[in-house]
Amino acid sequence: MLRNVVRRVVACGAWLMVGSAMLLAEPVRAQSAPTDTTTYNAASTLLWRVSGPGVTGASYVFGTMHMLCPEDAAMPTELTAAFQETQQLVLELDMDAPGFTKQMRGAVQLPWPNSLRRVRRQRDYRVVRKFFKFRLHQPILPFILMKPAFVESYVYSTLLPCAPVSYEEQLVQLAQQQHKELLGLETVQQQMASLDSISYPRQMEALVKAIQQYDTYAPLMQQMVSVYQAQNVDALYRFINNPQYNPDQSEVADLEKRNQNWIPQMKTMMQTKPTFFAVGAGHLGGRTGVLQLLRQQGYQLEPVLLSKAPAAQAPTPVR
Asked: The pTM is what?
């Protein structure tokens, strides 16, 4: 049970960024900066072939959505063909690394002697407990020692009308079957740094608000899935970084910093061997997205159009 809970809270990163930023945002008096409507990536696709200085063979960048219903996460033939051309898989995190699950468990757990009962007011804990019991029909016990931000992430995962799956897990399985090396662009500690900068009482506040506004989030989640399915990475970037959800744009700055930190690593990896990169699609689009940053380094990005995969290929959820 705990292992699957950890898997789901790790997978919901983009949605947690949208939800927490909106719920924790202070009222903004100054006018928000205008939305960048420039088209940086004209083709509608999530898969891009990279060529250019020092690139060995074929390398690809694929934009994932970390949690989808199985029928929406089937692997198109063009995607599996591109993967076959490469020799290593690079995700945001090396999910196959020794001790990865142990590190993630440590990252999501509150430091002793904290628990959800203690990080804020008792009535906040009662709101969470009642929501799990009467709305999700699940015991609160597996979550009692988790940081509130990750409990919030799990709550968002239940907005999907299914048992969710991820492209990352499917790609890891393919890499294992094809005996390909699996690497990560970040450590667990690096990826969790921005969330850990938020105090536990503030995380609990966001969790309670997310529960109170739960019914209003289902249409927003479906909207984000629809934008992803349209395969317009610039539109998805604008959706995730909408000033309505990120009034102070702090999450945008964090996203940009991570993208910039990835580029030197990606260059080195592509020069070593043909590489398949799979990162959240919100990282691809925009002026400071991974695709545009690679172009600025002299690389050519060729769109690979994806057909809809047959429903029979839909992955089976891991419960």
From this structure: 0.87
